[in-house]
Task: inverse folding
């Protein structure tokens, strides 16, 4: 099982092209927070 740092690194690598397409740093941050919030909710339910 991946630890937190490993999955964050993997997710960052996977999302890089999509976040780059957003262009604006604030939009990139909001999208990153939105996506990572799903994983946080999932871990709380278990």
Result:
């Amino acid at each position: 099982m991946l630890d937190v740092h490993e999955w964050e690194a993997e997710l960052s690598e996977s999302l890089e092209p999509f976040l780059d397409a957003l262009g604006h740093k604030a939009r990139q941050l909001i999208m990153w927070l939105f996506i990572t919030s799903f994983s946080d909710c999932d871990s709380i339910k278990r």
Notes: Residues 27 and 33 are 10 Å apart (CA to CA). The longest helix spans residues 25-45.
